[in-house]
Design a protein that fits this description.
Layout lengths: L7 H4 L18 E2 L11 H9 L13 H11 L6 E5 H13 L5 E5 L4 H9 L3 E5 L8 H6 L5 E7 L11 H10 L5 E5 L14 H7 L3 E6 L11 E5 L2 H8 L9 H11 L2 H23 L6 E3 L6 E6 L5 H11 L1 E2 L1 E3 L4 E8 L3 H18 L1
Parallel strand pairs: 1-11, 3-4, 3-5, 5-6, 6-7
Antiparallel strand pairs: 2-8, 7-8, 9-10, 10-13, 12-13
Helix pairs in contact: 2-10, 3-10, 4-5, 4-9, 11-13, 12-13
Length: about 375
Amino acid sequence: MNAPVPKPWIMDIAPYVPGRSTTDDGRRVVKLSSNENPLGTPPAARAAFAEAANSLERYPDAGGTMVREALAAAHGLDPARIIHGNGSDEVLHLAAGAFAGPGDEVIFVRYGFAVYEIAARRTGATPVIAPDRDYATDIDAVLACVTTRTRVVFIANPNNPTGTFAPRADIARLHAALPADVLLVLDHAYAEYIDGDQDDGGMELATTAANVLVTRTFSKMYGLAAERIGWGYAALAVIDAMHRIRLPFSVTIAGQHAAVAALADPDWVARCRTENADLRRWFSDEVASLGNAGLRAVPSQANFVLVVFEGRLTAEAAYKGLMDEGYIVRWLPGQKLPQALRITIGTADEMHGIAAALRRLVERAA
């Protein structure tokens, strides 16, 4: 019997695998696998979300007007050049869908965000993976991959799952060397976590250049992962093309109201950034103290740390051992990282607990 046949490039996609919430035996334990904000959601955002329950019979504003205007006011942007979506994931898919297709190439770095390959293959484009430099973005390697078929370049900064950060000079050099018909997508999902006043200049490029898109999200720092609210900023022509394939009601009324309320609470961002930075630094130092056992923490500017296992204790064994100890982290063999674990920065108690558990596992493996 004949049946519908999927396009071959669709069947080449490895489905996205999210961070787990339970152990192999079904226990709910400390979840440090999805880079969620351990402090939760700003109180005003929770209140705005609850109030929106009075409008469940209504469709949300398809244009996301209130969100775009609030973002424009908060960041000094043109609301007409902002696009919103169901998490920044949708915005990333829109970028690939609008500017790449069969016969085209989409570049991203090794150990980059898994959605980039899915977004590229979904359009029928060919994924091109640029080599890394010790888990970080190598600008020269990315540029060496550019051909006449390149249409989109995805760069997460800070990068997920490695946490590494490419400075402003590197991003400027990359953009300057790219052909004008290549869209540079700078994924700033973790931008709020960067230390101090470091900035890769991406938003400035998106404001002045015709071929730069910056994407952001409310899922991480603002604690609105459940509501899936992302956005992007680029030249009007880029945004217009993406709007043509955007889902019309992809962000709920409650999500839009919660996002606006969250933006109005800069003290929440400051508190979360400070606590994350302190615990990230402390945990990285704890991992460094286990260096003789072959563990090291990749320098991170996000709300997680990638721990590389190069000794007797393997990442797989540590993943299973930590699960037995009551902690779920992210092991990523599907992203060619069988030698590492990505560990979300949780509360102080959670981080002290997992550090102690990791030390016990190292001692047992010695």
